[in-house]
Amino acid sequence: MKSRHKKLALIGGALAILGIIAALVLNALNSNIALYISPTDVAAGKAPQGKVFRIGGLVKEGSIKRQADGVTIAFIVTDTEKDITVNYKGILPDLFKEGKGAVAQGKMTADGTFTANEVLAKHDENYMPPEAAKALNDAGNRATDKKAAEAAGTPAKPGASY
Amino acid sequence: MIHWASFSDFIAMGGYGFYVWSSFGATALIMAIEPIIASRNHKTTIARLKRQIRAENRNTTE
Amino acid sequence: MKDRFNLYRFASPATFYPLAGAMIPYFVAVSVVFGLAGLWLGMLVAPTDFQQGEGYRIIFIHVPASWMSMFIYLVMAFWAAIGLAFNTRLSGMMAQALAPTGALMAFLSLLTGALWGKPMWGAWWVWDARLTSELILLFLYIGYMALTAAIDDNRRSDKAGALLLLVGVVNIPIIYFSVKWWNTLHQGSSVNLAKSSMATTMLWGMLLMAMCFWMYSIAIAFMRVRTIMLERERNTEWVKAVLTGGEK
Description:
- The complex is a heterotrimer.
- Chain B is mostly helical.
- Chain B is built from 2 helices and no strands.
- Chain B has one domain (7-61).
- The chains are: A alpha+beta, B mainly alpha, C mainly alpha.
């Protein structure tokens, strides 16, 4: 009986140590685990210079500009704090829309815009029929405004706000 | 009650048919094959162990 | 004292073997019923999604498979802890019986995720924290199966496997909370204990499918554990009795 307790304690201790190690490793890797950084981070100089990285945020309403050729496109990615203009030439995913999330991979250019070679759409965790979405949208404009204000107050994680 | 207007609508899945049906097909395939393999393993194991027992019995009675 | 005696009796392969055998058909039947109800609700009744159109219906297998891939791992880790602490024979067998199904669930989660990501996100795969940690889970399953298969002595292979399972268990909260902790392409969870952000029919379709996957996993694990029991205990009286007395 006593050795059983001892074994349990040993296993518990080993698990606790492993957990702490994992937490430390993850903390150290934190910056690299993030798939993308926000426009605010880019403005704060956290973007790697001259290297390919990803930015993420919302596609600003009314900011999509399509060229006549149909594949060249410019839009603004925002986290409601800072904006970055993204230039992209290629196919866009189905869910790429104004007001929705997007992640773009590419490089910063000298004039402060972002040239992307890949654009991905990020959707939210809501699933509902279109009628319900419309009703919710009509009724919930006030709530959305409030949420946007909150998001602007906490610019650290744009992912959490949409 | 039924969401679909026609069978071809159902198959088309609003243009996502390939992705939806590949997902469901792969899952159905795996969930059909896994039990077949498991029960066949069970049967062959039983047959093999039975043979072993018979062989042992023969050895001890001789 | 009496309770403990009963517990050990239940955990002994000789008792568990016929019990599991008798329960398999019920789990299969319940799984089929849940599956048919879930498919009916999810594929025929549930409405279109406002963002993803009909493509969202992949959720009815993607989420159940992902849940099961994590849950089966937790159950295996539970058996691993029991096995290390109390040296029970059953625990190692249970963990081994569950592993292939867990691996298949992780594989299905990744496969259906890719088939969903391509049309919606625009990519089959991205190295975000959610996808990467689920891939690590698949590797953990494969690693466990390879490790236990590599060691012939059952006692030692159980012990080594249990250690691997317990080390790897840290990956489960990482998978679950990755969408909260880091910037990922994968969206947050639609369902948790407090609230759900899904329309009712969609949610019920998904929960029914999850029940189907759960019952399926129990049935297949019972099938496999019975084979493992016969194999490992082939020299015991109870196995000989099972094999000679009109086996099942």
